[in-house]
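Re-run requested by the PI after the first attempt was lost when the workstation crashed. Everything re-entered from the original request form. Ligand of interest: 2-OXO-4-methylpentanoic acid.
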Amino acid sequence: MLTVHDFETAARAKLDPVHADFIAGGARDEITVRANEAAFGRLQLLPRVLRGSAVRELDIALLGSRASMPILLSPTAFHKLVDPEGELATARAAAAAGAIMIVSMASTVAVGDIADAVRAMGADAQLWFQLYIQPDREITETLIRRATDAGCSALVVTVDSPVLGAGERNRRNGFHDLPPGLRCENLVDLRDGERGHVRQIAMSPELNWQHIDWLRRTTSLPIVLKGVLHPEDARLAVRHGVDGLLLSNHGGRQLDTVPATLELLPEFVAAVAGRIPVILDGGVRRGTDAVKALALGASAVGIGRPVMWALAEGGEDGVRRLLELLRDELDDTLALCGASRLADLTPELVRVPTWGPTPGPAVAPGADNRFGGVIE
Ligand SMILES: Cc1cc2nc3c(=O)[nH]c(=O)nc-3n(C[C@H](O)[C@H](O)[C@H](O)COP(=O)(O)O)c2cc1C
Ligand SMILES: CC(C)CC(=O)C(=O)O
């Protein structure tokens, strides 16, 4: 396993194709899924030389959490689909690497049990909790209480899902439910009937900023909004007292044909103007990808599918190796860029190609991409 793509290939060879499709897939034509990765390939790095440093500093402080690197685990549902230990394995690997893990509300191990497993290692759990605000306020409050009691140190509220994205691979494959024996453990006992069932997770098309105001009054944990794309919404989030933003298009799984997150980053960062941290996810597969996002103003990046692939390939050990690999690539890229600290990563390191054919992987027709072959 030398690259993230090696994990992807190995995972696909091991997994039920229906589950592999659930992980890799996106909404509709998957134009945004492809655009996310392609955008990184289009940007260039222009390094500085003779600024040597024997070691690089990769650690960060983010919303009261400390991490050994600016790569965090974005929330992904259903880890037991790919490994019998599920989120326990992922969380142990994240803790061993000193990385922040955002636990999905749709985890197949309860958030309290995940936190216990990390504490049992003697590690200081850096767990954040991802929340879909539920139409039933009491259910949302119970979920927040469960996450808070578990020791989670931030709430990541996903706001790009008023309705569930149309994963046509899942529809074609008839994948609508977890297999017998697996359930969303955070939802157990929250409603009569289907105990911990996926269908207990309701999408709330009625969500608006007042819900965020309510949440702000309800919890003292830092609130991160995940899935904000428009710079105007970034400004509104700051005004509503949000503590951080996760610039994300849900890995292309919600609204198809939205731009790559990397492409939106400069304008987004300008709108936020340093008032709160901006994290980016979507298509991060290489240390160079992380460096490009950090240079353009992200405080950290998140990875989604790579974690699922590594977990499928090798369980806890697989995720450990994935995180080591990305850490090594990040360190190596910093060295090659003449950077010894993350603060040395500035926009001048990054360039948009100004002539010639578009480098990097092909993008499907219709993909919105400012970086491709554009003369600026
Ligand atoms: C299998 C899978 C499950 C996901 N589950 C969730 C989830 O439960 N909640 C959420 O907010 N985002 C979820 N996401 C989106 C990720 O948090 C993240 O935004 C996305 O995967 C990042 O793009 P990448 O996969 O290209 O790294 C999921 C993504 C995948 C691939
Ligand atoms: C709706 C969730 C259960 C999972 C999710 O967000 C996703 O698969 O992208």
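Saved to the shared folder this time. The domain at 4-351 is CATH 3.20.20.70 (TIM Barrel).
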